[in-house]
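Risk register update: the risk of archive-format incompatibility is retired. Evidence:
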Amino acid sequence: MKAAAAFIILLFGVWRLSGQSPYLLPQEIEDRLQQDTMPWKDQVATWRYSFIGEYWKALEIWDTKRGGRRPMTASDSAYFDRFHPVEALQYISLAASGRQIVIINEAHHQPQHRVFTTQLLRALYQKGFRYLALEDLNYTDTLIGRRGYPLTGSGYYIVEPRLGNLVRQALAIGYTLWPYEWKDVGDRERGQARNLARLFEQDKQARVLVHCGFDHVIEGKHDYWDRAMAGWFKDITGIDPLTISQVQMTERSSPSRQDPHFEMHDLPYSAVYLDSLGRPFNGRQGKDQYDIELFHPRTAMVYGRPHWLTNDSDKAWVQVPRRKIRTGFPCLVEARLRSEGPDAIPVDVAVFDTGKEWPALALFPGKYTLRIRDGNNKVQELRLTVKK
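Archived output:
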């Protein structure tokens, strides 16, 4: 567990806020959930909880509305027994060596998936990958590459700090961002694929890492759709993508919700499972929707927060002394780099509450402004310096 030296000074006193932050306190999220009439209001609440670092609450709401676990048959178990685990980052880096495009998905409420994609960035850059294509990236943010960090208007899910950090670190390494969401009416899957194909029309030697949502990664037969984005891309370009799913083999809010294959996995690192011929496990026998099923470790809590929040870089855990906070509790703490603007996506956001374990922030070395807000819209700012 890494801890950093932090120097904190009081910047301003406490004042009442007239505007609205995109980050909501838990009670505010619950109030909106109760008032909302949209059919997908529970999904929106899930995303909002993920934006403020309330990991288990996000999983709980998602699982409550998304059904239970799939059964495992004796033949499923016998098939999986043929496979053995290898470390995922190293394996995927080697598997990507001969590919022009790697497509990896996420569940939009699961920040752990964004942390893993961020971990892939440097290894793939060394293999010649130069583009990061993001489903969530807003076409209107044309200055993001020059600016070097995302704003609250750069995308919907980019508000979540782990996705914001994926963008921030990709730009720092040297990646060019490529938005590819379909903007018109009609087939979204085919439209996304065409927008990705345009990149290869401009740069025939392009090597691209694509971070997409859920089933867009499927290149084989989809259970319900005609074709998913990855399959259409292969048809349109003739380029075979390396497709990786993170969604199924990740912890859920309780064991009763988890995939039975995941229950057979108990390693402290992300893994790919290979058979005796070196072929990766990609789901139940005969499914063949993507190339690799990625297994993530279970979460351990550090300072009341998921341990993997510091896995994607040289981040360290930084605690803010309770005596420095002058607002009421619970309060939201948003940590922004001072070198970035006030609309920048925070490096981290957490809820601080005296009735729970006192959290730490997962921060890069640097100079920060902490924006602290309570339920009465009282706001305080602190300056903090994190040293290596």
